[in-house]
Design goal:
Layout lengths: L17 E7 L26 H5 L6 H9 L5 E5 L17 H18 L4 E5 L12 H13 L4 E6 L8 H5 L2 E4 L8 H16 L5 E8 L15 H15 L4 E5 L12 E8 L2 H17 L1 H4 L5 E3 H13 L5 E5 L9 H8 L5 E7 L1 H9 L7 E6 L11 E14 L5 E9 L3 E6 L8 H5 L10 E4 L6 H4 L7 E6 L34
Parallel strand pairs: 1-2, 1-3, 3-4, 4-5, 9-17, 10-16, 10-17, 11-15, 11-16
Antiparallel strand pairs: 6-8, 7-8, 12-13, 13-14, 14-15
Family: Belongs to the peptidase M81 family.
Pfam family, one: DUF1485
Organism: Bordetella parapertussis (strain 12822 / ATCC BAA-587 / NCTC 13253)
Length: 513
């Protein structure tokens, strides 16, 4: 039911300052990857940061929305707490080490204590961070922030829909706002909502009454696209309908993130109302029941081809005049997988752009020796990091260019572009890069008209720049021939903290919210 509200002794008259702390601690953790996310991964040029640097980060995202809206209130003073940004490994690394977590959380808590008191704290989180030795990191962050700032302060957070959350977060915090769409078009909007509702709560105009319901459905993220006629979009529409019907009601639908082996994995419904606990319960039950009724449709929301068939289909669609074709290699969680590249080389691909294959060691060697445009290239690329990545593939060609770019997670990676074969280009990156916009390829020096087939490592975010834009005439989701990490075959994963038989479709749990 959420936390009972207490009067805030720091609330000031309108002409005096309302002080709100802003912090950021976010990661989408694939715990089945062998490479941990370490302290140094959060440390790079610009991270950690504080004050106006933090407040100016990610202007189109959660933070940007929160800061823009909060600054519309002249009495609000925002304080950027020293925080790490998204790690340079992006979403291609495993467990966050306990050392890294405690180090950065400790810095944030110390900064909060030294610069308080605060009327509120806004936390830009994710929901799928997984930390060694900490079962529910976001709830732990909220509890420990609460211990520093006191019971009267308003705590609010924004989340990614791939978060794994349960009732514990809102037992420590007051407000939560989760993105609804995948791709995540409404990040800025949810930041705005968090700011507006937090200010109202600080003023005593919004008294949070919340409800959280776990729904025992476990789904791979590739199925969770909210475009077209997706049943996931229908669930989002139901949430939006409740928000339209009931003033001051907010509905969060966490789709869940199955690649994190954590006890609160899976779907969650959260509802927030203004002092109406019965309404919060009613909406949460309705949403949970709707999700459960749709569970079979939710698990059949995408058509996926084996890589061999998908590559053949892409060639045929090109021959039929249905290019550009996007081959979305959705299952690659490390970025190093070579299964699609292997098949393209085997079948003599032409006019194909592969973006990207991650190979940190290769990129480091190329940088060390000063490789540049025009140099010959004869290297084994990718693979090796685990079974799901496959074997390295030998590529012979020439280097077109190199640079550093930011991907869809705001992580930066060095890269080299390599021309090979009949009009093909391979982008080799240090880390997994999720290409979400065509402009990202153009900034690497690519002329998109030179290619018929685009191979992207992505589940749904690529649709932002390649589908919803109308660019691609054909889209084919592909997967390797084995139930590797990243594929839809979740029952093949070596879970230790999750019993998949307690979730649909791997069991038939008795669920009646």
């Amino acid at each position: 039911m959420g936390r009972p509200r207490r009067m805030n002794p720091f609330t000031m008259p309108a002409m005096q300052k309302t002080r709100i702390a802003v912090l950021h601690f976010s990661h989408e953790t694939v715990t089945f990857l062998e490479r941990d996310t370490e302290l140094d991964d959060f440390v790079f040029d610009g991270s950690p940061c504080r004050d106006e640097v933090l407040l100016g980060y990610d202007a189109k995202g959660y933070l940007g929305g929160f800061v823009q809206c909060a600054r519309e209130y002249t009495e609000v003073e925002l304080v950027g707490i020293e925080s790490p940004l998204f790690p340079k490994t992006g979403i291609g690394s495993g467990w966050v080490t306990h050392e890294a977590y405690e180090h950065f959380l400790g810095i944030m808590l110390d900064d909060l204590a030294q610069r308080g008191p605060f009327d509120g704290v806004y936390m830009a989180l994710h929901g799928a961070m997984a930390v060694r030795g900490v079962e529910r990191p976001e709830a732990d962050i909220a509890r420990r922030v609460r211990q520093v700032v006191g019971e009267a302060a308003i705590l609010a957070a924004t989340f990614d829909p791939h978060g794994n959350e349960d009732e514990q977060f809102l037992q420590a915090a007051d407000l939560a706002f989760c993105v609804k769409y995948f791709p995540h078009y409404d990040m800025h909007l949810q930041g705005e909502r968090a700011a507006r509702t937090m200010v109202r709560a600080i003023r005593g105009e919004y008294r949070p009454a919340t409800m959280t319901v776990k729904v025992p459905i476990l789904t791979p993220t590739v199925l969770q696209w909210t475009g077209g006629n997706s049943p996931w979009l229908q669930l989002v529409h139901r949430a939006l309908t409740w928000e339209a019907r009931e003033p001051d009601a907010y509905v969060n639908v966490f789709f869940g993130f199955p690649w994190a082996d954590v006890p609160d994995v899976g779907m969650t419904i959260q509802t927030l109302t203004n002092g109406k606990p019965e309404l919060a319960q009613r909406i949460a039950r309705d949403m949970a029941q709707a999700a459960w009724r749709a569970r079979h449709d939710l698990l059949n929301a995408a058509r996926i081809e084996p890589i061999e068939r998908g590559v053949a289909s892409a060639r045929q669609e090109t021959a039929n005049g249905n290019a550009p074709v996007v081959l979305a290699d959705y299952s690659d969680r490390s970025g190093a997988a070579t299964w699609t590249l292997q098949e393209l080389v085997r079948t003599g691909a032409r006019r194909t752009l592969i973006a990207t294959v991650a190979d940190y060691e290769l990129v480091s060697r190329l940088k060390q020796r000063g490789a540049r445009a025009g140099d010959a290239f004869d290297e084994q690329v990718g693979g090796r990091v685990d079974d799901s990545a496959g074997e390295p593939v030998r590529i012979q060609g020439r280097i077109l260019g190199h640079g550093q770019s930011q991907d869809g997670t705001n992580s930066r990676s060095d890269w080299y572009t390599v021309a090979f074969g009949d009009g093909n280009v391979l982008v080799v990156s240090a880390y997994l890069m999720q290409i979400t916009e065509r402009e990202m390829l153009e900034q690497m020096g690519m002329t998109l008209a030179d290619f018929d087939i685009f191979v992207i490592k992505s589940r749904a975010h690529f649709r932002r720049g390649f589908d919803d834009s109308g660019f691609a005439r054909t889209i084919i989701l592909v997967e390797p021939p084995h139930p590797f990490l990243g594929t839809i075959h979740l029952d093949a994963l070596p879970y230790r903290n999750v019993k998949v038989e307690n979730y649909f479709p791997y069991g038939e749990p008795d669920f009646n919210p």
